[in-house]
Amino acid sequence: MANVYNDPGGGSSPGGGGAGGAARDRLDPTINAGYAAGAGPGAAYDDPAVAGASPHDGNGHRGSPADALKELGERFGELKAYASYYLTAKADGFKVSLRNLGLYAALGVVGLIAGGAILVTAAVLLLTGLAGAIGAIFDPDKVWVGNLLVGLLVLGGTGLATWLLLKKLTSSLRERTVRKYEQLQRQQRDEFGHNVHERAVRAHEAAGE
Fold first, then answer.
1. Where along the chain do its domains lie?
2. Residue 39: its H or E element
3. Is the pTM of this model over 0.70?
4. What's the CA dihedral at 114, 118, 121, 125 to 10 degrees?
5. CA angle 184, 189, 191 (to 5 degrees)
6. Which run of H or E residues covers position 140?
7. Beta strand extents in the chain (DSSP E only)
8. Could you read off the pLDDT of 63-109 as tens digits, one per residue?
9. Which of 67, 101, 147, 166 is 20 to 30 Å from 124 by CA-CA measure?
10. Contacts of residue 10, Cβ cutoff 8 Å, sequence gap at least 6
């Protein structure tokens, strides 16, 4: 039968006879491939090796909606697992950062306490030695005089430094506030042609007249 269908000059064929069947066979090589394999006319289309990849399953039907829904559910589950993994990694990173911050804060507090204690001890030793040196000037030694003088000097110096610092800070804040409102008034003048201060002066002058 294969020789009859493949013969250009053959007789009858399932779709027609003679030269018409031969021409159809030459135009559709998949039919000849199916016949060459010893299969029927539809085998060339059912064989993936001959017809290529096919969207149909083994029964000749496309994938059912149930299969598509199943695949969609699997993809959704995979996406959910990836999102959970991402959120877990972010949460762990936040926990690690928070833990490191707590450790650094604890180390800073310990260092501050230790440094403060060292500075206080050094200051006490310095003042004690200075007081002893002043008391040794007298004959006999008068330690209380040294302690009194050193105490007065420390308290007076601390008070003077505090007053100067507060005065400087107050002056700096005042200058900053004045510059801020001067800049606002300049912006008002540029935008409206006058500022709130000029408006207030004009209103006062009008009220006086």
1. 2-51
2. none
3. no
4. 170
5. 95
6. none
7. 12-13, 16-17
8. 688 788 878 877 888 888 889 999 999 999 999 999 999 999 999 99
9. 166
10. 3, 4, 18, 21, 22
